[in-house]
Amino acid sequence: MPLNYGADALGDVMLRGASLSGITLDMTVLWVLIVVFFFLASLNFRKARAKIGL
């Protein structure tokens, strides 16, 4: 779940003093999910626009 990766990264930085290299995996997973969800949303938006004739 995206919330788990975000919370892990935030906890590592705030509580353990991790650097960006320490949270690379968490940030990579979050960015991949952002891209995938953005792509799916744009496809859905495109279908909705075609359906109403815009």
Describe the structure.
The chain is mostly helical and 54 residues long. Helix content is 81%, strand content 0%. It has helices at residues 2-16, 24-52. Helix 1 packs antiparallel against helix 2. The model has no long low-confidence stretch (mean pLDDT 91).
State the distance separating the first and last CA atoms: 35 Å
- Extract low-pLDDT stretches: none
Class based on secondary structure composition and strand pairing: mainly alpha
Number of strand elements = 0
How does the major sheet shape up?
none
> How large a portion of the residues is in β-strands, by DSSP E?
under 5%
Question: Would you list the SSEs in sequence order as H and E?
Answer: HH
Portion in helices: over 70%
**What is the 3D form?**
rod-shaped
Compute the CA-based radius of gyration. Answer: 17 Å
Output mean pLDDT.
Answer: 91
List the total number of helices: 2
